[in-house]
Design goal:
Oligomer: single chain
Strand order of the largest sheet: 1-2-3-4-5-6-7-8
Number of strands: 24
Radius of gyration: 25 Å
Largest sheet: 8 strands, parallel, barrel
Number of helices: 18
Distance between the termini: 19 Å
Shape: globular
Strand content: 15-25%
Helix content: 25-40%
Bound molecules: beta-D-galactopyranose
Structural class: alpha/beta
Length: 633
């Protein structure tokens, strides 16, 4: 695995570039990502390009032996462009324009802005598409960051109408699909349909789901336009996009299909602070991050683009954007880096080379301080580089276990949670964590993936079953676990005929008669586990495999397929995983708190995320805080 960093030559005097490049090499870096926010310097006046500085920056990096990942600058359109096309900005859900002065001030649906993007990407690719140092392109930067997937602009509304017309053919078909007779919401033409915002109370969930699908398609087609240009003008050069953590606003599998390498931006401490983790978890993992945060995304993004993936931005110290921004425990930067390697990353690139003394991110650590002295992470990077060198290339094999991940499922649950603690990402993460705690390697795959060959397949939930998915499960000869709400909606967001789980019923003959959600803190004890958050009342001739304290069916199984009718707590997940692994003959471990392991084809890696030293019986070793152990298999 290679190492790199994110560098902004336009932020620093040119005299410093050569020295920076030399020091990067000295730290063990061989890749540099540049350019992704530089539009105002690449085209200071409309149509007047200034390539000189970028030519020299790339040459300087090349002279030091560094390869370049070049970003297209479309996340930061310059002021003159916004002033020429004021309606290119996104409109938020409250109807307000999202103006100039930071970044991502554009609407994915604005045709004029898209044309400008095609123009700048074409110019950039004509200039650098065959440059020997440019070994990868990054399209834009973090699609959707700062809540920018959804826009309620005129451009978006009119594209949405076209999208609906293409999907439904006639407005009558749309009215029927959405159930618009309810509350007299019927339309007489597609032209009458607006985006689902500014309604008095909630808009129709079917309307929302289609708006989310549409918005996701806009991101994918925006990206595809850049990819087409880059493929033509820069043949053979890999293309990536840097995805985010815990982010489901567009279908990453769709974007992933068009690129060569899926990358993501890994900020384990920021994510622990910002997401649903309990106060205890936030305290226990304050300076390390939760042991599954980075791994979860490594496995998710490996499944987003044919297995090729990397970390485009790795947290090197405190960030600036979470509610609280602690410093990593000494050793964590090395640990995070080696863990990416254990999951098969092609590279890890640190964000950023030098901390900027100005503007929005001046409090965000880099590998260097603003005065160019080394920050804490610098030594850790050198250490990681040394171990990676020794390890050599790592190959990742197909895991025994797959989790099926669906962006559409995230939207469906988000639109109609029916209980505020039913959160899709948290559900999937809990299942992932339960598997990893038992020492299993996991692939996280799309519903379209070929599932043959896995020994355990887990589907935390899939409310809308894609065409053919139930048959695909039926044809497997491995243990399958379906979570609550699977098959509970049709493609147009209705309850299926004959009740949930809809198309799953031939596989597990049950009908969901009623569902209830339970407020936080409610916990109904059963046999060593408890019902929390969500329960379905199941009608079935089948006798349940597990029941709650009142005798209500909770888990039903037929053949190789199980259905779990509650939000399974950790104890129930543990029990179900033990049963599945027993059936599948997959060996389990029982890892101590904070310890995770991961195998490549040639090595076994162990990592200690706990804040204290931990004895790991399976290795016969004590791992220090932020400690790790690697051995050949
Ligand atoms: C990422 C972004 C970077 C930088 C970084 C700070 O979300 O891609 O440009 O803002 O966060 O942590």
């Amino acid at each position: 695995m290679k190492l790199g960093c994110c560098y902004y030559p336009e932020h620093w005097p040119e005299e410093r570039w050569a020295e920076d490049a030399r020091r990067m090499r000295g730290m063990g870096l061989s890749l540099v990502r540049i350019g992704e926010f530089a539009w105002s310097r690449l085209e200071p006046e409309p149509g007047q390009y200034d390539w000189g500085w970028l030519d020299r920056a790339i040459d300087t990096l090349q002279a030091a032996g560094l390869k370049v990942i070049l970003g297209t600058p479309t996340a930061t359109p310059p002021k003159w462009l916004v002033d020429r096309m004021p309606d290119m900005v996104a409109i938020d859900e409250q109807g307000r324009p999202r103006g100039f002065g930071s970044r991502r001030h554009y609407c994915f649906s604005h045709e004029g802005y898209r044309a400008e993007c095609r123009r700048i990407v074409t110019a950039l690719a004509e200039r650098y598409g065959r440059h020997p140092s440019v070994i990868m392109w990054q399209t834009d930067n973090e699609y959707g960051c700062h809540d920018t997937v959804l826009s309620f602009s005129e451009a978006a509304a009119s594209s949405f109408r076209g999208w609906l017309a293409a999907r439904y053919g006639t407005v009558e078909a749309l009215n029927t699909a959405w159930g618009n007779v309810f509350w007299s919401m019927e339309y007489r033409s597609f032209a009458e349909v607006d985006p689902p915002h500014l309604t008095v109370t909630e808009a129709n969930p079917a309307h929302w789901l289609d708006y989310r699908r549409f918005a996701s398609d806009q991101v994918a087609s925006f990206n595809a336009e850049q990819v087409d240009i880059l493929r033509r003008l820069s043949p053979g050069v890999d293309i990536t996009h840097n995805f985010m953590g815990f982010f489901t606003e567009f279908d990453h599998h769709d974007v992933g299909r068009d690129i060569d390498v899926a990358t993501w931006d890994s900020y384990p401490l920021g994510f622990l602070e910002q997401f649903w983790f309990s106060a205890e978890e936030k305290a226990a993992y304050l300076r390390q991050g939760h042991p599954d945060i980075a791994a979860f995304h490594h496995d998710l993004y490996r499944g987003c683009s044919n297995g090729r993936w990397g970390v485009m931005e790795q947290q090197p110290g405190p960030v600036n954007w979470a509610r609280f921004n602690p410093a990593p425990l000494p050793g964590m930067v090395t640990l995070w880096t080696l863990e990416a390697c254990a999951h098969g990353a092609e590279f890890t690139s640190y964000f950023r080379w030098r901390q900027a003394p100005f503007a929005q991110e001046q409090m965000h650590a880099g590998l260097l301080r603003p005065d160019s002295t080394e920050a804490e992470a610098a030594d850790e990077v050198r250490e990681a580089a040394m171990h990676l060198d020794r390890l050599g290339p790592q190959q990742v094999l197909r895991a025994n276990v797959a989790i099926v991940f669906s962006y559409e499922a995230a939207w469906t649950i988000g639109i109609q949670p029916q209980g505020q603690s039913f959160r899709y990402l948290e559900l999937v993460f809990e299942w992932y964590q339960a598997l990893r705690q038992r020492g299993l390697d996991v692939d996280i795959v799309s519903p379209d993936a070929d599932l043959a060959g896995y020994r355990m397949v887990l589907v935390p939930t899939l409310p809308i079953m894609p065409e053919g998915f139930a048959n695909k499960l039926a044809a497997l000869d491995c243990s399958v676990l379906m979570g609550p709400r699977s098959g509970s909606k049709t493609a147009s967001f209705s309850i299926p005929e004959g009740l949930a789980p809809g198309v799953l019923k031939p596989l597990v003959p049950i009908a969901i008669a009623r569902v209830e959600s339970l407020r936080d803190g409610v916990s109904e004890a059963a046999d060593g586990w408890a019902v929390t958050r969500w329960r379905e009342d199941v009608a079935s001739e089948l006798s349940p495999e597990l029941t709650d304290a009142a005798g209500g069916g909770v888990v039903y199984a037929q053949g190789h397929i199980r259905y779990c009718a509650i939000w399974p707590d950790r104890a129930l997940l543990r029990l179900l995983i033990e049963r599945m692994a027993g059936e599948a003959d997959v060996p389990l471990l029982d890892l101590p708190e904070g310890i995770r392991i991961r195998r490549t084809a040639s090595h076994l890696f162990a990592f200690n995320y706990a804040a204290e030293a931990v004895w790991v019986p399976d290795m016969g070793e004590v791992l220090e805080p932020a400690g790790w152990h690697i051995e050949p298999r």
